[in-house]
Design goal:
Elements: E1 2-4, E2 7-8, H1 17-21, E3 24-32, E4 35-36, H2 39-53, H3 60-71, E5 78-86, E6 103-110, H4 117-120, E7 123-127, H5 147-153, E8 161-167, E9 173-176, E10 180-185, E11 188-192, H6 202-213, E12 218-221, H7 225-228, E13 233-238, E14 242-249, E15 252-253, H8 258-271
Parallel strand pairs: 7-8, 7-14, 11-12
Antiparallel strand pairs: 1-2, 1-6, 3-4, 3-5, 5-6, 8-9, 10-11, 10-13, 13-14, 14-15
Length: 272
């Protein structure tokens, strides 16, 4: 089910700049029992992205009211909501017309059917050949240009591989194709800086706050592949699946250890 600018439809004008240039931002939100998980954080990132692209973002009050009305039309108890804000209709040329009015697109998708073992036993991963480029202006936000992630995801089709790591051109580990990572070494949690590339993941932010609240030491820094593969534990995070422990990356094995289990427990208590 889709809604565009308040009307139930799946048809969009081909001159919309989302179609022509990927000119816009999006958010993917978990919805359970008609409750929008981490709404505040998602809206803040959406608004931040619009400001960077100089697109007028709907007010939080207006958008949340529209979203809540839309999701009530679904008979599902658990699903994924996608919000897209594009610059609107603009025709040809990179320089957007000043008369463009933003397009609001809402979509409801089935909840992904991830294997239960991803949560209980851990996942296997590869290291992508496709690199993430540096672009400080666009780092952190979720813009509509995701060709790097698409090309990276085409690198594997095996169901045994649930996710893969992406590096930048300097061999720094940035994130997964759809998630952020955390590594653990000697009771210290590590995650990569996203100042130059990567996504400011909602679940990443939630976990960082949990670490701070529970007085767990963490460091945000550039992490080389060599450093990454020396972590004692690794887990991946995003706002849909939560946390996946990592048990293997290429040929290197890892343990689903106590630190990862502790974070899963803290997150579970927070969500309860």
């Amino acid at each position: 089910m889709f809604q565009i600018n308040g009307k139930l439809t799946n048809k969009i004008n081909v001159e919309d700049r989302a179609v022509q240039y990927g000119d816009g931002v999006f958010e993917t939100i978990a919805v359970k029992e008609k409750i929008l998980e981490f709404w505040k954080q998602h809206y803040q990132r959406l608004n931040k992205g619009c400001k960077i692209l100089k697109i007028k973002c709907p007010s939080e009050i207006f958008l949340k009211k529209e979203v809540n009305k839309f999701i009530k039309k679904s008979k599902k108890n658990k699903f994924v909501l996608k919000i897209i804000i594009s610059r609107g209709i603009g025709g040809r040329g990179y320089n957007p017309p000043t008369t463009s009015k933003p397009t609001r697109i809402l979509g409801i998708y089935d909840w992904p059917n991830y294997p239960q073992t991803n949560f209980t036993k851990g996942i296997q991963m590869n290291i992508c050949k496709t690199r993430i480029s540096d672009q400080p202006t666009l780092s952190e936000i979720k813009h509509l240009n995701k060709l790097e992630q698409i090309i990276a995801r085409l690198e594997w089709q095996s169901k045994a591989i649930s996710e893969s790591i992406m590096l930048d051109s300097n061999n720094n580990v940035i994130e997964g194709t759809m998630s952020n990572f955390f590594g653990v070494k000697k009771n210290v949690f590590y995650t990569s800086t996203i100042k130059f590339s990567g996504i400011e993941g909602i679940m990443r932010g939630v976990i960082l706050k949990l670490l701070k609240k529970n007085k767990k030491k963490y460091i945000i820094k550039k992490i080389t592949l060599k450093e990454f593969l020396k972590f004692d534990e690794i887990f991946m995070s995003n706002s849909i699946f939560g946390i996946w422990p990592v048990i293997k990356i290429s040929k290197k094995k890892f343990f689903f250890g106590k630190k990862t289990k502790k974070i899963i427990s803290l997150l579970s208590n927070r969500m309860a």
